[in-house]
Design goal:
Layout lengths: L1 H24 L15 E6 L5 E5 L3 E5 L7 E3 L7 E8 L4 E6 L4 E4 L7 E3 L6 E7 L5 E6 L6 E6 L7 E3 L7 E6 L5 E5 L4 E4 L5
Antiparallel strand pairs: 1-2, 2-3, 3-4, 5-6, 6-7, 7-8, 9-10, 10-11, 11-12, 13-14, 14-15
């Protein structure tokens, strides 16, 4: 009986200690998930201070229009993992999400609805960056070899063209500041840069 009482008091101490730690952690960050879902989220893009979209496993897309107070699960139309998302026009709400098996999705209403695009590839796409409504890049890797892949569009994703990737490693993220200058990063500290629009 004494052993049981001792264990109960230790459990209560550990539990209350955890409560106090959790209370202190609320000073700058506030828990907003797992509602409305519990799948792993891999990328996030903000259109405005109030509108943000996050993407993740099994085709998950969640969206907030009230600065994160509530999140709504959107219909992506796919069960494939999504790895990256990018928005270019907060007024029109044009955005692109990418993922496994060359998945590319496009939205023109701020992430409320999504339509698939033909990427012309079956590789894993991990990151995407658009500089305007038409010009964008996606990066990734061949699933079994890990060789870096870059695809490029100049017509809003209607067609995608493979580009030379001077990296033998998986590319995980990409960012362009204008149609010429961009950087992609990946496995083993890989950093590649272009000042010629990927040429």
């Amino acid at each position: 009986m004494r052993y049981f009482a001792l264990r109960a008091s230790v459990l209560f101490f550990v539990t209350t200690a955890g409560w106090s730690t959790a209370a202190r952690a609320q000073s700058g960050w506030f828990w907003q998930n797992p509602l409305p879902q519990g799948n792993e989220l891999r990328a996030v893009a903000a259109l405005s201070p109030r509108v943000t979209v996050a993407v993740g496993d099994v085709g998950t897309i969640v969206r907030t229009t009230d600065a994160g107070a509530t999140w709504t699960l959107q219909d992506s139309g796919t069960r494939l993992d999504l790895r990256g998302v990018s928005f270019v026009d907060a007024n029109i709400g044009i955005g692109t999400a990418v993922g496994r098996s060359g998945t590319i999705l496009r939205t023109t209403d701020g992430g409320a609805t999504w339509m698939p695009q033909l990427s012309g590839t079956t590789v894993i796409l991990n990151g995407v960056s658009f500089v305007n409504a038409n010009i964008g890049w996606a990066v990734g890797a061949f699933e079994y070899t890990g060789l870096g892949v870059i695809v490029h569009t100049t017509d809003g994703g209607d067609t995608w063209t493979p580009e030379y990737a001077p990296s033998k490693w998986t590319l995980l993220s990409v960012s362009f500041v204008n149609p010429c200058t961009g950087i992609a990063v990946g496995s083993y500290g890989t950093i590649i840069r272009t000042d010629t629009g990927g040429m």
